Amino acid sequence: MRIVFIGPPGAGKGTQCKRLAEYLKVPHLSTGEMLRSARSEGELGCLVARYIDVGQLAPDDVVMQIVKKRLEAGDCRAGCLFDGFPRTLVQARLLDEHLAHCGGRVEVVLDLRVKQDELVSRMLKRAQLENRADDTAETIQARLEVFHTQTAPLLDYYGAQGVVERIDGMRSPEAVFEDIRSRVDRRREG
Ligand code: AMP
Questions:
Q1: Under a CB-based contact definition with an 8 Å cutoff, are residues 106 and 97 in contact?
Q2: Residue 71 to residue 39: CA distance in whole angstroms
Q3: Is the CB of 52 under 6 A from ligand 1?
Q4: Does 130 or 152 have the greater pLDDT score?
Q5: What is the distance in A from the centroid of ligand 1 to the CA of 190?
Q6: What 8-state DSSP symbol labels residue 11?
């Protein structure tokens, strides 16, 4: 099963993805993590860092190249969880094309909802714990804006495909996971 998580930064995507990937026994593909580890790789790394550090999206072609390469690994054949990808309509269309080419598609999109003030306070807390360079008050604001303008429109795109499940992310991580698990199970059975 191929699942896409959509949610603003700080919504808890990473935590929920890890749990769900373990439950479904499929790889967890976080483009944020992939891009952060690409930072140290020469020219491409420098280019990527310039975007991440100011809270802007890396270019679609760079992201697609990294994702396609990862999808070629045999472990994604039975499915995977996309965490933080796609983030633009261009990426979503290119992902659909790529999957269609291999006879697959996105089966579920989890739309994780958390109120704006809660997001900001969660991200500031994370900044202290993880020391992430892109969790400053300024970049947090930029990333939230990027989410609303560039990523939120994906919900209409996937909504038209009838694959979106809206999840209330304002509850405890356990309650959120239970909700996600039961909806994914329902989709799997149906
Ligand atoms: P994340 O860990 O998912 O919050 O991603 C951290 C940063 O990596 C984002 O603010 C972007 O700069 C970059 N990034 C992650 N995923 C993507 C993507 N699918 N497209 C473009 N940029 C991305």
A1: no
A2: 20
A3: yes
A4: 152
A5: 32
A6: S
For residue 87, how many C-alpha atoms fall within 13 Å in the half-sphere facing its CB? 26
- Collect all residues with Cβ–Cβ distance below 8 Å to 148 and sequence separation of at least 6: 8
Tell if the pTM clears 0.90, that is, is over it. yes
Four-residue CA torsion sign, 177, 76, 108, 190? negative
Confidence of residue 128 (pLDDT cuts 50, 70, 90): confident
The CA-based angle 146-151-157, given to 5 degrees, is 155
* SS3 state of residue 5: strand
Taking each helix axis from N to C terminus, what angle separates 60-72 and 42-52, rounded to the nearest 10 degrees? 120
Pocket test for ligand 1, best of 5, 33, 35, 63 (most atoms within 8 A of CB): 35
Average pLDDT for residues 159-187, to the nearest whole number?
Answer: 97
Tell me the CA–centroid distance for residue 189 and ligand 1, in Å.
Answer: 32
